[in-house]
Amino acid sequence: MDTKDINLSAELKKYFGFSKFKGQQEQIITELLDGKDIFVLMPTGGGKSLCYQLPALISEGTAIVVSPLIALMKNQVDAVNGLSSDEGVAHVLNSSLNKTQTKQVMDDITAGKTKLLYVAPESLIKEEYVDFLKNVKISFVAIDEAHCISEWGHDFRPEYRNLKGIIDKIADVPVIALTATATPKVQDDIQKTLGMNNALVYKESFNRANLFYEIRPKVNVDKEIVRFINQHKGKSGIVYCLSRRKVEEFAQLLQVNGVNALPYHAGLDQKTRVLHQDKFLMEEADVIVATIAFGMGIDKPDVRFVIHYDIPKSLESYYQETGRAGRDGGEGYCLAFYDPKDIEKLEKFLAQKPVSEREIGLQLLNEVVGYAETSMSRRQYLLYYFGEIFDPVKGEGALMCDNSQNPPTLKDATKDLKKVLEMIKVLGEKFKTKDLISLITGKESAVTKSYKLEQTEYFGFGKSESDNYWKSIIRQATVQDYLKKDIETYGVLKISEKGQDVINGKSKNIFQIAEDREYNLAQSK
Ligand code: ADP
């Protein structure tokens, strides 16, 4: 399509009533209409939907929108149909339709009425649909929640993995993939699986400057939460627990303590769930105590706190769940309780899973531990996880976390950093943190033996300090961009440019670290 002739701002106003594009929406839409493949990484609430809805509405033919949840599809379809004066420009094709309804949808597409067709990946796989879609005019394909493609995402769907082959069968049209999960690993996986290595990538910052992050040791957790909620009386908040039983128990405990709280989990019947959700949205209940089943698609702008009774299984989940606070830009307090024993429980649970799932699960947990135990800016740590380098002094929201407000005493570890970097370089940048720690502290492992690391000068050089000390050096060196974790092997440490400067003696940076918090946690119990 020749985009020069289109006044996108006028179309935005006409369909959505907005007078300005948000962020990079306009460039994204222009490039998509120009026939380019596009990859959009934007936090929740960034305005991703409009990036495919608007071009779909003004393009010839039907845009296929792949979306993982039937419930979400329905909301979106209703929303789009509310936009246009033409009746029914958006439809769904999924297992919830009967034969007559399916035929109606197909007829609408053939007649050129349907601008957006929402499909679940498992429906798209069906041969009859592929054959049908092959023979109608398709404008482009949008893949929403594209992180579902990756096992490293928080919501892996095996059906998403075959999408590329199916799309190729249907039409040779541009593809736009969108997600709010932006770890470099997931990003890489999505692009490879969809054959979108040459796509234009639009990434917006994942920094939520109005959120305050705090981690507390999980001691007297019930009391602590009750006290916190009483200090925030009348404000909306969510308390996440890992188990349904805990949700029930804790909701009751809050009620007994005079908090207007309700439980929410997938074990409750549909009616109760909807009722509790609505009461929360309508402000008849202040607090919802929930499992992770609560939240997808919930858009309550004035949630003032999100509490994690149990630490989540991955930093993505943590980010998504805490992200439900302060959507309106106002206060949003994110408080999580951490106990290394909870991690052990989750690890045991993973031990029963198939190998690949287990490995991934453990790596994700490792990042959670790193985050919970770090003494550096939480925002810096979290954003690093999403591939962003954040300035903990001048960055937006720099002071908004426990560690930044109450900085731990720091120790100059520049020499130790240099030694570690040199060692990694000399040994050929082949090892992961765990093996490097064995090497530094002089403990034999399968890896140290097979590479004969016992015979190097590095074996045991750091014996006088604890494992945790060296772990923090490596962790913080990674987060501060002296080391890079290799994406392919997920975890092998490589020297960055900044790290190379330290090795060459060109760097004037002072590298400081604090005593590891894990130690303090163990003592506080
Ligand atoms: P995402 O899918 O990235 O989570 P949404 O597409 O749901 O985000 O958009 C988040 C909110 O921003 C919605 O309420 C939407 O109507 C609004 N929005 C999107 N684009 C604009 C815009 N250009 N101007 C004003 N509001 C917008």
Task: Give a structural overview.
- There is one protein chain.
- This protein is α/β, with parallel strands linked by helices and 525 residues long.
- It has 23 helices and 17 strands.
- It has a seven-stranded parallel beta sheet with strand order 3-4-2-5-6-1-7, sandwiched between helices.
- Strand 3, helix 5 (99-110) and strand 4 form a beta-alpha-beta unit.
- Helix 14 (340-351) packs antiparallel against helix 15, helix 18 crosses helix 22 and helix 19 (433-440) crosses helix 21 (467-479).
- The longest helix is centred in the last third of the chain and has 19 residues, at 355-373.
- It binds adenosine-5'-diphosphate.
- Adenosine-5'-diphosphate (ADP) binds at residues 18, 20-22, 25, 42, 44-50.
Shape from CA axes? globular
Q: What is the distance, rounded to the nearest whole angstrom, between the alpha carbons of the first and last residues?
A: 65 Å
Class per helix and strand makeup: alpha/beta
Biggest sheet statistics? 7 strands, parallel
- The neighbouring-strand order within the major sheet is 3-4-2-5-6-1-7
What small molecules does this complex bind? adenosine-5'-diphosphate
Average pLDDT works out at 90
Helix content: 40-55%
The radius of gyration over CA amounts to: 25 Å
Low-confidence stretches: 518-525
